[in-house]
């Protein structure tokens, strides 16, 4: 996550509105995390160690700890204000989490894992990296995973064909405007919503890749059995095992 993205997600107005905006713009978020957790082949009572990349307000970690209550998590995010919200979300479960503020492109200097991790996961964070950065991150993650460990990522993608991408974007904007219901001037109509999304993505440094590129990065990073577990339009859950 580059400096531009970290700064964007540290802005007070972004932090305050983050979860509400995610529900508005990404209504599949919880379902995607459910699938990412569901695919993991571990017993519910397993005392797992996990790594959250781009923890944000702790949405993924909260669901992970609900599924694996004996787990311990290291949650990394570039925005300290986001991690403060994660602590508040997790409440008593925050005792099972080590919160680390920093750029996950420097993962090896941020995280020490003497025994290794069983799981690494991320949601709506890695699209801020370009392909070489993402490949390097996957390699770093795999170096921290135990043999047989899993990496899962829930994120946005871009269509291969420009015409298909244009249709996906149209559906995206129509859905946001409909869910906003006139209650948010940013999304009052199609034109306003499109302008806001374009400005937001430029400000936050979004660099989504095609699904084929995502899978290539996972394989080149060293992940075995890289697969897609869920896909709808411009969002996907993907991953595999070390």
Describe this structure in words.
The protein is of the alpha/beta class. It folds into 2 domains: 3-158 and 207-241, Rossmann fold (3-Layer(aba) Sandwich), CATH 3.40.50; 162-201, no CATH class. The chain has 10 helices and 7 strands. Strands 3-2-1-4-5-7-6 form a 7-stranded mixed sheet, with helices on both faces. Helix 3 (29-38) runs parallel beside helix 4 and helix 7 (131-144) packs across helix 10 (211-220). The two termini are 23 Å apart. Residues 6-14 have low confidence and may be disordered.
Tags for this model:
242 residues, globular, 21% strand, 2 domains, 47% helix, 7 strands, 7-stranded mixed sheet, alpha/beta, Rossmann fold
- Derived from helix and strand composition plus strand pairing, the structural class reads alpha/beta
Subunit arrangement of the protein: single chain
CATH architecture of the largest domain: 3-Layer(aba) Sandwich
Query: Quick one: biggest sheet?
Result: 7 strands, mixed
* Rg over C-alpha atoms, rounded to the nearest angstrom: 17 Å
As for the CATH topology of the largest domain, it is: Rossmann fold
Poorly predicted ranges: 6-14
- The CATH superfamily name of the largest domain is Vaccinia Virus protein VP39
**What fraction strand?**
15-25%
